[in-house]
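Continuing the batch. This is chain 6 of the set; chains 1 through 5 are on the previous pages. Same settings as before, nothing changed between runs. Recording input and output for traceability.
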Amino acid sequence: MRAAIYARMSTDKQSTDSPADQIARCREFAAARGWGVVESLVVSEAGVSGASRHNRPGLLGLFERIADWDVLLCWDSSRLARDSEDLGWIRNRLRAHRRTGYEVSTGLDLFNVGAKVLGVMAEEYLVKLRADTQRGLRGRAERGLATGGTPYGYRTEPVALDEHGRAVESAGYRLVVHEAEAAVVRRIFDLYLGGAGLREIAHRLNAEGVPTPRARALRDRRPSWAPTATREMLRNPIYRGERIFNRSEWIKDHETGRRRRFERPESEWVREEQPDLAIISGETFDAVQAETRRRGNRYLRTEDGRRLAGPLPGCGHQRPARHVLSGLLECGECGGGFHATNGAERYGCGWHRGRGPVVCSNTLTVARSALEERIFGAIRERILVPDAVAYAVERALSHVRSELAESVTADTTHGARLAEIEEELALLHRVAGRTGREWQVRALVAELEAERQRLTAKPAAARSEIDLEAWRPTIEARVLEMRAAFEGSADARLDAFRALLGDRRMRVFPDPERRFRVEGLFELSLEMADARAAQGHRASAVCGSGGTLWHR
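Output for chain 6:
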């Protein structure tokens, strides 16, 4: 029996050696039954939640290589998943490929009724953990303590210090006014009441180099003030000394792993008056809200307050309608959104327009018709063409053949070193067994096992030869399907774009010869059954624009 091992450590407070300990117990379980552990299939994922399988490449990788093992070992089923749907998916995959799995902690196989009950308990643990966390945060809010993110204009300080001057974590932290940032907050409120718009305020702050709110992960982009940030600050009642907790909740989508914010009913909000946190007066705050409503009244709204497509006659600019390229473009210079402006007839850099030339100097604007014509033309004539896709697949298969040749060479070259590693491991285990000092050799054993895993690992894709001609019917059908989508409605084209782009966006650059150019990586996924399908493999090729491609 060939055994694979999966270990996981969540984000809760566990020993940093937890995955290593899980793997050690799984090895003992396998050894006691005479099973051989496949070293390249010993997977450890640390700091990863078990709430969804979709954010765990290690676990998914094991099931992509299900043909290479017979039994899956884990410390307990909660290491595999804390979601009943994911556990069901794992059991279905095992059943479909006539594999099995065991919980080492109980000795139960994953199809046992007892293991299924433990899986339900693991899922309920997440529910209880979420409720306990919410209860603790609410208690902190009611005691006037910090509960999470610190708003701009404030900092946190410990409520109590020990005899060494260190924070007593159990006592919590409280918000206090950060005077330098508070001055910026007051200025934003004054500028708005003085008639400045959100965009004008952001431009001024960026031009003057005013420090921004906490920098977020922006793909290496420079942090800067945005109109949306100033708008949210003008709405936040904390600046007048009123804290609101439990106003919203974040729910993670199980399929995508992304979190979405949902507003809670106002009856569930926890309001706390804290005058010591006031940065502006109540009168100033109320005046800003009144001014916001006055400016907003220029727009037509539904009965529930949602803004319609355009303003009242003679008030402001038309809001751009949503088009097929909306949300799919970014500025090639700064990485900000490249979206519709001037009534949706032209596209331009949103950061240049919203944050100012200091943040992005790209003044390029492109007529929507020209932008769509160039992008759609390239897709029709250069990408969604059977011969072009076939060429990309052939390139991918060539890459696979090279990997296969390299892996054969590596097997010959690494054989001697692998034999040495086995001898060294055996010696270390004998020393540890005789002296009882396993902990002293643990680091050396881990280092040798990691080296062995690197030497024995082979690209899963480079396992067999694939005939390009067998792909041609799939290629032609997929290309025709995508071309039909691009000739359909705006919604169909948008769906097709998203299928090709994934989570990426196309980048628009100024170009001295053609005025502008668009760069983007398009992936056209192809799937087919081949000789490896019976062994649990799925072959797929991805073709990308600009010659970027790979095989999985």
